[in-house]
Amino acid sequence: MENLNVLFVASECTPFAKTGGLGDVVGVLPKYLKKMGYNVKVVIPRYYSIDKNFLDKLPDPLGVPMGIIGELWCGVYRTTLPNSDVEIFFIDYENFFGRKDLYNYEDGTGYIDNDNRFIFLSKASLQLSKRLNFRPDIIHINDWHTSMIPHMLKTYYKHDEHFSDTKVVLTIHNMQYQGVFYSGCMDVLGSWEYYFDYEFNGKVNFLKGGIYLSDMITTVSEGYAREIQTPEFAYGLEGVVRDRSSNLFGILNGVDYDEWDPETDKFIPKNYSINDLSGKNVCKLELQRRFGLPERDVPIFGVISRLVHQKGIDILAEAIYKILSLDIQFVLLGNGEPWAHFFFGKIAYDNPDKFGCFIGYDNKLAHLIEAGSDFFVMPSRFEPCGLNQMYSLKYGTPPIVHAVGGLNDTVDNFDEVSGSGTGFKFYGLNAQNLFNTIGWATYSYYNLKSNLEKLRRNGMEKYFTWDDAAKKYIDVYRMAKGIKGKFS
Ligand code: ADP
């Protein structure tokens, strides 16, 4: 097997910095590629929250040419991804990354210099690969933040031997966030070449350029790869995606079962498996205790989500009064749009016996909700892949999902006559359909116990491995490099 060098550049990487699925992919996929014999390195920013004391500092500062701004100098730190020898490097530049949140001010608006911040990350990662003498066969870029890298390779580094064999693979984790900025940022890039590949209503759209200039493009489910070719899901870039559709592939994320498996989960009060589900009840009682809900036999519906429009949280808000008229309990963990914090906080205050809510980010609690709930609710407006529904399947907590993107690809609808399927799907996102489906699940809990049990077990048997996903990424890398013969 050939020995490709792969440089991952991203704005997040779990466990160091994560706001969502992007961080999970960047934290896990490189380890699997490494296991398959590839040389992989990862580069992300050294955000304020990443403690330097646990990292090694590279001896010399790194110069980063920033076009009209001039050259900026940064520090570089290094460590390895947990339980692996994959090296991860952190670009340390206080003025850009020494802030509380990754992308936004506290009110949710993006930092005014996000264009410069991520041009800087992108340039720094290329400079670093030269410093390390690591000649990448593939640079794997992720979302808009690093989408300017192919532009840099085609302009500033065009004649640089170091990158003469480099191909770029872009993974789109979310099409909604595109990185649209005042066109003056082309001056920071140092070149207006390819401007029209980026141009978007008189501004510069980083993701648009990434889609046009990368060699191959992937997104995180096959369903989403089809959807982003349509206006409903592409936020203005459907034509651009369609132009590149022959180089676009959907690769479903795997699940990190080292972290998300009820048999070994360190965060839940009792482990359980498909062969012995008794521990799930212990988790349910603990969940009820945690939220101060009455400890009785009643279906619990769980939500863990960024509380944003994408996740259909407004639809949940519209439906919640009717949902709470059923004999159920509901727990919600999340943070995001301020209105949702107040709204669901008030629902919890008004319905202490039925609705528990924790506003914030809490990984340990997320595990308990997966384990202790009877159903998991995901009414996403769009969902590139979605991880929580896959975790839910493993935890014997059938997901209730709007049939889009990765949710549609990973969940099979319940057939209440045979007990086949893995969850509950609804088509058409509105409060009535969400309520009806939660009603159906509630009815099943009380009246279709044995087939619901089958459904639960069908889900637990599902296995979404990173091994499979990694093989598919390798296929894409090979296509980018023009290497014949598929891995899988
Ligand atoms: P997205 O990337 O769009 O946020 P995913 O379902 O792909 O959605 O990934 C969400 C990840 O973030 C999951 O691992 C989920 O458990 C986690 N998560 C989201 N919100 C919270 C929260 N408030 N507390 C703990 N974990 C959360």
Task: Please give a structural write-up.
This protein has 488 residues and is α/β, with parallel strands linked by helices. It folds into two domains: 5-254 and 466-480, Glycogen Phosphorylase B (Rossmann fold); 278-460, Rossmann fold. 37% of the residues lie in helices and 19% in strands. The chain is built from 19 helices and 19 strands. The protein has helices at residues 21-35, 94-97, 114-131, 149-154, 185-189, 195-198, 206-213, 222-227, 231-234, 238-243, 278-290, 313-323, 338-350, 363-372, 388-394, 405-410, 431-447, 449-461, 466-481, and strands at residues 5-9, 39-45, 56-57, 62-65, 71-80, 87-92, 138-142, 167-172, 180-181, 199-200, 203-205, 216-219, 248-250, 300-307, 329-336, 355-359, 375-378, 399-402, 424-426. Helix 1 (21-35) packs across helix 19 (466-481) and helix 12 crosses helix 17. It is globular, with a radius of gyration of 23 Å. The chain starts with a strand and ends in a 7-residue tail after the last helix. The mean pLDDT is 96. It binds adenosine-5'-diphosphate (ADP). Residues 20-21, 24, 304-306, 333-335, 361-363, 366, 385-388 line the site of adenosine-5'-diphosphate.
Q: Strand fraction band?
A: 15-25%
State Rg.
Answer: 23 Å
**Distance between the first and last residues' Cα:** 13 Å
* Small molecules bound in the structure, each named once: adenosine-5'-diphosphate
CATH topology heading of the largest domain? Rossmann fold
Number of helices: 19
**Mean pLDDT value:** 96
Per DSSP E runs of 2 or more residues, the count of β-strands stands at: 19
CATH class of the largest domain equals Alpha Beta
Work out the helicity level. 25-40%
